[in-house]
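Let us practice reading a record.
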Amino acid sequence: MPTDIPGRRDTRTEEQTPDAPAAPAAPVVPDTPEATAAPVVSGDAGVPGGTAARPAAPAVPHRAGRPGGPATPTRWPPSGGRPATGLPDRPPGAADATARPSRTGTEAPGATGRPSRASSGTARAAGVIAAAAVCQAALMVGLGLLITGPAARVWPLSSEDGVDDALERARTGTLDTVSSVVSEAGNTGTVVLGTVVSCLALLLIPRLPRLREAVFLAVAVSLQSLVFLVVTEAVDRTRPDVDRLDASPPTSSYTSGHTGAATALYAGLAVLVLHRAKGPWRRVVAALLLLLPLLVGLARAYRGMHHPTDVAGGLLNGGLSLLIVGRALLAGPHLPAPLPSGATRHPGTTRTTRGAPAGPGSGRTTVIHNPTVTDEAARDAVRGVLEQHGHHSVRFLETTADDPGEGPARDALREGAALVVVCGGDGTVRAVAEALAGTGTPLAVVPCGTGNLLARNLGLPLEPAKALSAALRGTPRRIDLGRVEGDGLPPAHFTVMSGAGLDAAMLEGTSDRAKATWGWPAYLVAGLRELRAPRTRLTLRLDGAPPLRRGARMVLVANAGTVQGGTALVPAARPDDGLLDLMILDPHGPAGWLTAVRSLLRRRPSPRTGGRTDTAPRPVEYFTFRRAEIHFEAPQPRELDGDPVAPGRRLTAEVVPGALTVLVPERGE
């Protein structure tokens, strides 16, 4: 393992380290005790002092009736300034760790000073969709009233009756049968079933786009149907005056519901195929999917069910639904970071970015790839994307079982690499980050593994070529790293999460064959087998405060909180706030598990109930800290960024602020 970043404190001798004068640069934590309000939280609602940072010393989480109070604060770092990592000081306006209030697993986000990005992003997307849907409905109604009113006698609308008659005269037995089959593709039952099956496939089949895309498809189909119902109520148009081959539903001829629903479903699937799938076949599949709504519209007109403008209205309604929902749901997420004064330009974009390290220069670009998940075609795709963005001097280095990426990354640094690209899973990314920590050399993450947690939290697409392209068009940003050590565990960094207990046992129990076959759902199967594992007792000490005693099935230290399926497992964790977050999972019995699942699915800590004073343990608790010392009563399995490490009874974790420079997609990417 590499040595720690120069200038970091020695955690083993911290209590003997004399205090040094405060550095002239703005420190992360001031030396004055009055400003040292380390945010530590209580897992119990209603405990006085549990939700606000104490002005004099770290607040001690405690239950009702349990003694607790301020303790001598442990300065961060001992010198009074931020660790000398070789990175510039935290930009003005960035989240100040000393000003961050405490929170618990039972507090409302508003009480923490750090609102949940997931909840605010969901609310914003819902608002955009609702507002745009009103405009869409108004537009479709307006067009319908125009078609049935002033424009009815204007060419080409005046010739629609002639088109209806011509289609009736062209009927044959074969065309009747074919049109009947094609028309069923837009039938309500077919569309509903197709939407449900597609969404389940997106959520369960490995390496498909996950929750966001499933929601996109379901909401687009639903929005089209809602607008269709509004339009048919507002616009009264009779069906063509020809022999109709199907029973006439009690709705207006305008718009074609079959065509609109087919457009929302099949064109939506085409968008996802182009957006996520790989290989030349995706264009063929997308073209066939896009052709289906046109065939459905033609079949409906042939069977005498709609005028040509009704079919055009259905295509427009379905297309607008896809556009609105796609813009609202498929344009994120992004890593928010305050913009301080000063600006630098990143190669490949004309935008000015503030408060970011300089982008990769014109020197060598090194690609570090895991050969087990990146074949020759994938490497060629990566090389092509790099050349498109002006990176022509590219060197490829392979990882091995003995060296998962740290050695090649150090070789790249010695050779003066201006940009390092890592192609692999979270383990490969973590190993490369070990070498790049504190150097300022930008890292572009290309997700090629099973979990791809850092890529998800940075808002990168999960298709490798698109992820690299988005990163190269993006902005260099400094994010934090977590640093852990323990008995039998040398000091090591992690980018997203480290834990002990249930999650580590789940990862250890998942075979490589299962991951290759099923993808990330294989972890769920292994997790079910570990649910009956015994609980353990632990002692927790946060930022030098008095120790806490807890029971737990799982302890998770998070630098970023989003996992597979878009689930915000640790909702408030952000990779750029100079802090780490701790989740303790300790459900008791079926009711406890249901409460825990409900809390996790809410994507935010539960709201505090002011009058609660009981001492019952919480199924889920959250804490915020800079340094945590965890001692377990019995040895526990442990993991770093999804890789099992040696089990043990001790785990010490601390944050390394701004240690890693990564390329993050621009807003709207």
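A brief commentary: The longest helix spans residues 117-148.
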